[in-house]
Amino acid sequence: GPAHLFRLAGQCFSFVESTYKYEFCPFHNVTQHEQTFRWNAYSGILGIWHEWEIDNNTFVGMWMREGDSCETKSRQTKVHLVCGKSNKLAYVSEPSTCVYSLTFETPLVCHPHSLLVYPTLTEALQRKWDEAEQLLYDELITDQGYKKILKEIFEEAGLLKATEENEVEKQSRKITLEFETMEKCIKEYKQLSEEIKKLRILLGQHDIAYKGNSAGNTSVEYISHQLTTA
Length: 230
Prior knowledge:
This protein is an alpha+beta fold.
């Protein structure tokens, strides 16, 4: 993210609302402490530093996720960054159950260019962004395709966390590349066939029935029971 905001790291800012005290520690976490004498007064984590909130190619906030459990999910907090005369936590709300909203004022974001994403990227990612801009201008990609490329750039830069679906997609793409030639495909096929034979022998040793299609496995040299055991 923006390097000039890193000076906030290691500091914490408090805000008291009714009987609750909230504490925001940039790039670390958000906590809540109930200021009562009840025996079971709540004190816990509302979120741990996770990723940026980016809108219109600008940093607009920080997401603190994976806080203490709350029924079937974890508590999470979005911290909005707004211009202010001093660094302070100005407002806290809970727009939906266990999802909190904090407003943090700081003079560090008052300059109109202080929260632009592009300058924080490496030259390679900036070039990738430039190419996407050109493709969009030439109408070779749709607006949706452009946004998808930007999201990939932000994830690669570590500004956003890749979703589980994206990770699966990347792995699928990697596997596809591994089988891009007939030679690689045959090699992988032979290795997998050998693994199947080993597993079938192992199942046989434990009197476990095997059901599967063994068509085509005859092309691979048979591994003896003795070798498999070894």
